[in-house]
Amino acid sequence: AGDKNGCVLIPAFAVGRTQNLLYYLNKLATSGKIPSLPIYLDSPMAISVTQLYEKHNNVHKLKVENKNGTLVSIFDSPNIHFCNSAESSKELNDKKGPCIIISASGMCTGGRILHHLYHRLPNKNDTLLFVGYQAEGTRGRKILDGDKSVKIFGIDVPVKCTVTEITGLSAHADQEELLQWASHFEASPKMAFLTHGELQAAQVLQNKIKSNHNWNVFVPEYLESFELFSSI
Known about the structure:
The chain contains seven helices and twelve strands. The chain has helices spanning 17-30, 44-55, 86-91, 113-120, 139-144, 175-182, 199-213; strands at residues 7-11, 39-42, 65-67, 70-72, 80-82, 99-103, 127-130, 149-152, 155-158, 162-165, 192-193, 217-218. The strands form four sheets. A six-stranded parallel beta sheet has the order 5-2-6-1-7-10, sandwiched between helices. It has a two-stranded antiparallel sheet with strand order 3-4.
């Protein structure tokens, strides 16, 4: 998007994912691997969580310094800007030059990201970058699947910007890691339930756990119930 003089818009989960992004973007910029563009963090929850990283610096490895009574970390880099007010958020709509906007929600289902999508999706010079899983039925998934327009605020908004994704930032264990985790059980559980992920992937994992470890594995249907313990 920088080559097009446009904006990179990133929908990101407020807790964890946003802070990872700020860390990686700062590292890439300071090493000269990407241009040092202004980064606007536009999510009240993400801003609050980012400040917690500085307040509780004893529980992570990020460098936090106390400068004249103020806690300072990479999140205070001069190119990172926190949009604390609704007014500062709306001002981003008029940003034309190269910049990065990080906002929530991560699957574009609500929050401030919606008004950024409303203004950025029709712009051919801008880029929408997904950095997290987009669940079936979400607005983010529809855009990622190539829908030519999406409804925002009751209006069909054309998708003309570049849409791309990074898959390496997942916070979840993949199939191989889950199978490895299951291999450490000394005895099989009475029942195991796969409740997260899409149906096809869950069924494949279900079959692999059954064949590899002989577990009693279920992929529950909506509102399906199971008796875990007998009262007799």
